[in-house]
Amino acid sequence: MKPEDVMPAFGRRPGPERQTPGTSAPVPTPVPGGPLAPGAAVVLFLAFALAYFLSALVRAITATLSPTLSVELSLNASDLGLLAGGYFFGFALTQLPLGSWLDRHGPRKVILAFLSVAVLGCVAFAMASSFAGLLAARVLTGMGVSACLMAPLTGYRRWLKPATQLRANSWMLMTGSLGMVAATLPVQWLMPLTGWRGLFWALAALIALSMVAIAAAVPAWRTPDRAPGSEAAPTTAPSKGYGLIWRHPYFRQMLPIGFVNYGGMVAVQTLWAGPWMVNVAGYSAQQAAAGLFGINLSMLTAFWLWGLINPRLARRGLAPERLIAWGLPLSFVVLASIVWLGESAGWLLWALFCVSSTFVALSQPAVALALPAEAAGRALSAYNLAIFAGVFVVQWGIGLLIDALALLGWGALAQYRGAVAIFGLCGVLAYLSFLRAYRQRGRTQ
């Protein structure tokens, strides 16, 4: 099977089409700056992966630091949820302008500008002396790292072949999981040496280093009307807004599971698995860090395996929506087991929940492939906005539910079980909405 044949396997044709002489099958119209040579593609991936590794470390570090920050700043559950969610709130704020800027200016310029803000955010967090200061710095950091996945995925849409894009996407997520692994036991080990403020000074320096790597490795961006050797501008100007994205039926089909299920998986992985282990399962701070290490190592392995098998699944015509429909219900079974077992549910079950939720991660590259290449930045950023808005809502929402149930007189175990059960119910409803749209689209095609 030819690389271009993978496109229809993922449900939609990605853009304007032309007929290849001597064949009847449509193939995507070429875009300027086509696939890179393998060596250049590897260097490109590594430069982007370093920045994404650091962004994931910054994202997940609050789960490990939550016992220390709670004691030092007297934070309750809703404060902790808001502090962790502040990162995702800042992240979500930038997504719509980010998509337009990526399509217009390209990944290199955009990610370098955004990472400069991330450096300032880490410095501000290290210097903050109040909860308000920490929250503001967290929002600023979220804004700064918000291009660390969207920029590479936008570039991959143009610089890599379709099946390779699916592999690169999974391995970028694997790199993010590696960053989350680094945010667990390694952070716990460094805390006595540097303190949490010293950790954020070090993160600011490492993000600045990643900017140097990106500046050296990422190629320039050429828009279609500036393509080398082009004789004239395109006859029709591509849409610059988000109407094309929001109206697209494939995007709307994936929206509920992106918001609730994908967002919920990240919310659990980056925050609530830690407090559950401490407050429900009775783990010490060191044991909880070890549990988070195991969860994130499991996620790293899962995304590595997805990267290996995704091209083969594509060649067999297995669309991601079909895989999601089959696989995502496993996560509901695991979550129900966690609620049922309560204090007996430790890190292993939470790792199984996160791994079984990774089916929903297939939706991200599928959305990019479903829309034209010149709209990839906007498609990815709009979908990412839905995901990280979901992370913010779930992280803060679970904290609010825990505090609300406490006011009703529920015990600590019942508070957490009730909050997680309500989250699980929302996940089932989102999945059913996706399934209904998926089946309707299948009947009309």
Rg from Cα: 22 Å
Task: Report the span from N to C terminus.
Answer: 23 Å
**CATH class term:** Mainly Alpha
Strand order of the largest sheet: 1-2
Q: Say which CATH homologous superfamily is assigned.
A: MFS general substrate transporter like domains
Number of E-state strands: 2
The coarse silhouette is globular
Q: Low-confidence runs (pLDDT<50, min 5 residues)? A: 1-32, 225-237
* Number of DSSP helical runs: 18
Percent of residues in helices comes to over 70%
Q: Structural class per helix/strand content?
A: mainly alpha
Strand content: under 5%
CATH architecture: Up-down Bundle
Per the CATH scheme, the topology name is Growth Hormone, Chain: A
Sheet of most strands: 2 strands, antiparallel
Mean pLDDT: 84
Number of domains: 1
Membrane topology: Multi-pass membrane protein
Subcellular location: Cell membrane
Pfam families: MFS_1 (PF07690)
Protein name: MFS family arabinose efflux permease
Overview of the molecule:
InterPro entries: MFS, MFS_dom, MFS_Efflux_Transporters, MFS_trans_sf. By secondary structure, the protein is mainly alpha-helical. It has a single domain, classed as Growth Hormone, Chain: A (Up-down Bundle), CATH 1.20.1250. It has helices spanning 6-9, 38-73, 77-93, 95-105, 107-127, 131-144, 150-159, 162-182, 185-217, 243-247, 249-279, 285-315, 320-327, 329-341, 347-357, 363-370, 376-407, 412-444; strands spanning 17-19, 26-28. A hairpin with a 6-residue loop joins strand 1 and strand 2. Helix 2 crosses helix 11, helix 5 runs antiparallel to helix 9 and helix 11 packs antiparallel against helix 15. The radius of gyration is 22 Å and the shape is globular.
